Amino acid sequence: MLYDRNCLEGKRILITGGGTGIGKGLARHMAAHGAQVHIWGRRAQVLEEAAAEINREVGERVFWQAVDIRNYEAVDAAVGEIWDNYGPLTGLVNNAAANFIAPTKDLSPRGYEAIASTVMDGAFFTTQCAGRRWIEQGLKGSVVSTLVTWIWTGSPYVVPSAMAKAAVNAMTMSLAVEWARYGIRLNAVAPGPFPTDYAWQMLNPTADSSVGATQADQVPMGRFGEMSELGNLVLLLLSDGADYITGETITIDGGHHLAAPSTFAGLNSMSDEQWAQAKAAAKAASEKSKAQRSV
Ligand SMILES: CCCCC/C=C/C(=O)SCCNC(=O)CCNC(=O)[C@H](O)C(C)(C)COP(=O)(O)OP(=O)(O)OC[C@H]1O[C@@H](n2cnc3c(N)ncnc32)[C@H](O)[C@@H]1OP(=O)(O)O
Ligand SMILES: NC(=O)C1=CN([C@@H]2O[C@H](COP(=O)(O)OP(=O)(O)OC[C@H]3O[C@@H](n4cnc5c(N)ncnc54)[C@H](OP(=O)(O)O)[C@@H]3O)[C@@H](O)[C@H]2O)C=CC1
Fold this sequence. Notes:
295 residues; alpha/beta; 9 helices; binds ligand LGGBLMCM; binds NADPH dihydro-nicotinamide-adenine-dinucleotide phosphate
């Protein structure tokens, strides 16, 4: 362990999208360093199992709520429940996201909305609901958002995601200044590829759609990122050790975006038929996950 195992003792951290992938990895990392962790997602069973798995390792430190972050009233009520039943949050990780690859000319308004509202509205609603309480009660707080290197480069075929993540980057810089006087810090991380099941089903659904953005051999360091590496960065930003850092987005990608292959530009060669196959494969994965949703 790089950091002291109790360095987050006394911290209470909400991680949206904490039942799977990176969010679950972050929940495990923060709980293993002494924090109480609250995880959100739309599938009760997935959340319950993730919390139970981590709690078997660290003791009763992880709690869950089924919340759709696109629903402001649900977000406000769920943040209120944490405050009332456990105590004030000290940190928030805006990590939940939706995404899939698609030619932009073919995206339906609902497809655009599904991605943009989850990434942008969800992060704003959750940040505002925690931030308002911190300000009213004179408490410090730390917000860390999980962005992506497309905020620097853009990326074809994932345009709503690149746009919405850039908006959350703007929120990070803006509120860092507006809320600094309350002791509230906002920072973000911009990871390169850290393969997770759901993300790879959405971004890499067929062999034909496997391009630079999701390939380890395109990373100058020659490998994917490891969860503990991302965990250590997020831990630092959530901790009191980063008290003078605010408004920053830190890239963690082994040099990926500087070498250029971090986007989906390689999909320019996909035919209409290959796109239809990719869409069918991604939608089948979505439908399987949607059948498990509780909210
Ligand atoms: C350098 C490496 C970087 C990697 C960066 C990674 C970034 C990420 O963010 S990966 C995160 C991936 N994880 C997820 O997406 C998890 C959440 N996903 C979901 O909830 C679903 O998969 C969702 C994205 C499809 C959204 O679900 P929901 O809100 O329930 O939306 P609908 O199923 O009702 O669909 C809305 C709309 O979108 C159209 N659509 C869905 N999938 C596709 C697709 N693969 N291709 C084209 N269009 C799609 C769907 O047809 C609906 O539109 P209408 O048909 O017009 O109703
Ligand atoms: N994996 C990677 O290489 C990279 C990932 N990222 C970012 O990291 C974050 C995590 O991605 P990753 O772990 O890979 O992917 P996952 O799909 O595993 O994580 C997304 C999570 O968001 C939750 N979620 C989606 N929509 C909602 C909603 N409306 N309300 C509440 N929760 C929701 C999902 O749970 P449920 O479906 O149950 O609601 C899921 O747990 C994302 O922000 C992604 O953009 C950035 C760069 C690279």
